[in-house]
Amino acid sequence: MAVVFEKTKGLTDIPFHYCPGCTHGIVHRLVAEVMEELGVLNKAIGVAPVGCAVFAYEYFNCDMQEAAHGRAPAVATGIKRVHPDRVVFTYQGDGDLAAIGTAETVHAAARGENITVIFINNAIYGMTGGQMAPTSLIGQETLTTPYGRKPGNNGYPVKMCEMLSTLDGASYIERVSVYDVKHVLQAKKAIKNAFTAQINKKGFSMIEVLSSCPTNWGLSPNEALKWIKDKMEPYYPLGVYKNTLEEVKQNG
Amino acid sequence: MAKVLMKGNEALAEAAIQAGCRHYFGYPITPQNEVTAYMAKRMPEVGGVFLQAESEVSAINMVYGAGGAGARVLITSSSPGISLMQEGISYIAGAEVPCVIANIMRSGPGLGGIQPSQSDYFQATKGGGHGDYKLIVLAPSTIQEMADLVQQAFDIADKYRNPVMILGDGMLGQMMEPVDFGSIKKGENHIEEKTWATTGMGTRKKKNIINSLELDPQMLEKHNIELFKKYEKASKEEVRYEMTNCEDAEIILVAYGTIARVAKNVIELAKRENIKVGLIRPISLWPFPVEPFEKTVDHVKGYLSIEMSMGQMVEDVKLAVNGRKPVYFYGRAGGMVPESYAILEEIRKLSGGAI
Ligand SMILES: Cc1ncc(C[n+]2csc(CCOP(=O)(O)OP(=O)(O)O)c2C)c(N)n1
Ligand code: SF4
Fold first, then answer.
1. Is B75 helix (H, G, I), strand (E, B) or coil?
2. Ligand nearest to the CA of A212
3. Distance (Å, whole) CA B118 – CA B120
4. Which residues of chain A have pLDDT under 50?
5. Are A75 and B64 a contacting pair at CB < 8 A?
6. Alpha-carbon distance A66 to B219, whole Å?
7. Which residues of B touch A104 (CB under 8 A)?
8. How many other CB atoms sit within 10 Å of the CB of residue B46?
9. Residues 6 or more apart whose Cβ sits within 8 Å of residue B49
10. Is the full-model pTM beyond 0.95?
11. Which residues of chain B are modeled with pLDDT < 70?
12. DSSP per-residue codes, chain A
């Protein structure tokens, strides 16, 4: 019988611990499939974050290093500077990347560090039980914004793609989502572009994925997907924010 | 090789390069800035990597990445910078990644001052970061010794898969002395293959994971016990110290690093007054050398710990002496270096008194 679908070699057999309906799992699979398709699994070195994806080091079928909260881009920098010909990536949540690790993220991008960052924006701190994230929306209720996020007290959500695309060191920056099949396929393409940018030694690449956290949003998995589309997407527009791959093509 | 006149900080950097270190991550802070400048110039010459990070927090995590990826890697800083690195140091120790960290101490607390000090002794030897872990801490007192210990530090770090700290002070970093790098064996020759490192799987069947997370308490306790077995081995095999004039000394000074040099001068001054003074100079601060105290505790009247701090090592001296003889302390803080005559005056008091 013809094989029509196979589990990617990019993932180990260890079962994910993610909540039902959480899109972390989908993104893991996309990253793994992309690495398999690009044939880089045997030269990939991943950096896991602190957050719900902390066990990413168990799931990806390649060498992995687990970093302190927010420090993944610095750890990845160290690895990449030792092995410039390997494919080095980080997988980080919004608390990790846009709060405690903002400096590490901005400066890895500014240096044009030739790494790929997969950024899961679920507008909340999942692992610690649902506190406000730097990306939480205005009015969003969380454990630490029980009356809704108010700009006067809590400031405004951080738009990482917009911010990082102003930096010369950034090569490929795109925001995607995974709330339906079409968007999942787009997300995969974006992740592939980001890894390709690294393989072509273009510099820092980041894919921001608008992702769900049904557990801490207090929504069913389906409602959560709808929430990404209806609430998050208007504030965080999808699209390519920076693309040096294209530029080179245009320049011939 | 002929001796070259060099600043302590530069000798530290050159010794690391000669020990096979090809990766340096740092962030400027006085009084160790010569290291960053030296590395920025020299690393490209030897095909290595110099990277100025955006902060000490970031720099130490680059070290974690590079060390985990199998490189010999050095990081240097001074007191406030080392404080910022404590998070990373705890992770590095937990994940058993070898690296060499140098703290060229200045005076604190807080922003403090930029003059030499030894007030980070507790931080270096008792933890500093969170969790049950140990650093192997080596304290040179001359620039030659700085160079020699840096080279050994890389081997020790690899041997134990543990961070090794070189604890110097601003005086040692800034002064110039002749150094002979000829005595340094080329580190590359005995760097063993790091089969555990994250190098990309290549043809390897099993993936490598560098990690300090263990949520199962039983497994984590097992890890803690394993770490401490390692530290126990180090506390037998890595003890280093020097004894001067201890055989018939009535008072023994205990001092490390820069101030141990002053202590040697004091021994001569005391001799003129017929006071027999000796010196125990711990070179490894962790493991702290107990043997020289065992060897002297029966015949000595007492010990005097002299430090450029408000009194930190004196606690380890007391533990080593374990109540068998009196232990005294004399120190200056704030970046002040105790002077020979002030120490001599302390000795006179002790010698004249009953002790
Ligand atoms: C230094 C430090 N501070 C705080 C924490 C606690 N902590 C663990 S995960 C987390 C938030 C993670 O949120 P995010 O990065 O958005 O990932 P998510 O869990 O939502 O996927 C925090 C604050 C920690 N582990 N380390
Ligand atoms: S808490 Fe949220 S982000 Fe974490 S696994 Fe559950 S649904 Fe996913």
1. strand
2. 2
3. 6
4. 252
5. yes
6. 17
7. 54, 57-58, 61
8. 11
9. A81, A82, B22, B23, B24, B43
10. yes
11. 1, 183-191, 354-355
12. --------TTB-SSPP-PPTT-THHHHHHHHHHHHHHHT-GGGEEEEE-SSGGGGHHHHBSSEEEE--TT-HHHHHHHHHHH-TTSEEEEEEEHHIIIIITHHHHHHHHHTT-S-EEEEEE-SSBTTTTSB--TTPPTT--BTTBTT---HHHH-----HHHHHTTSTTEEEEEEEE-SSHHHHHHHHHHHHHHHHHHHTT--EEEEEEE---HHHHT--HHHHHHHIIIIIHHHS--EEEEEHHHHHHHH-
Q: Is the ipTM reported for this complex over the cut 0.90?
A: yes
- The alpha carbon of A126 is separated from its chain's Cα centroid by a whole number of angstroms, namely 14
B306, β-bridge pairs: B330
CA distance B278 to B266: 9
Tokens 């393409």 sit on residue? A189
Q: Which run of H or of E encompasses B7? A: strand B4-7
Local structure of B190: helix, strand or coil: helix
Whether A19 lines ligand 2, by a CB cut-off of 6 Å, is yes
What local confidence, expressed as pLDDT, does residue B184 receive?
Answer: 59
A250 CA from centroid of ligand 2 (Å): 41
Q: Which two tokens stand for residue B212?
A: 């300090």
Question: In the prediction, which pLDDT does A252 show?
Answer: 45
Interface of B with A in 29-58 (CB under 8 A): 49, 51, 53-55, 57-58
**Among all chains, which residue has been given the structure tokens 């690495």?**
A35
| Local structure of B265: helix, strand or coil | helix
Mutate to test the pocket of ligand 2, among A24, A136, A178, A223 (most ligand atoms within 8 A of CB): A24
Ligand showing the shortest atom-to-Cα distance for residue A19: 2
**Which pLDDT score, from 0 to 100, does residue A248 have?**
57
Residue written as tokens 């989502």?
A177
Q: CB burial class (10 A; 0-12, 13-18, 19+) of residue B298?
A: exposed
Query: For residue B182, what pLDDT is reported?
Result: 78
What's the confidence (pLDDT) of residue A52? Answer: 98
The kind and range of the H/E element at B57 are: helix B56-68
Q: Could you say which residues from 57 to 96 on chain B have a Cβ atom under 8 Å away from some Cβ of chain A? A: 57-59, 61-71, 73, 87-88, 91, 95
pLDDT at A249: 55
Distance from CA of A91 to the nearest CA of B (A): 15
Return d(Cα A63, Cα A219) in angstroms, integer. 35
Distance B105 CA to ligand 2 centre (A): 44
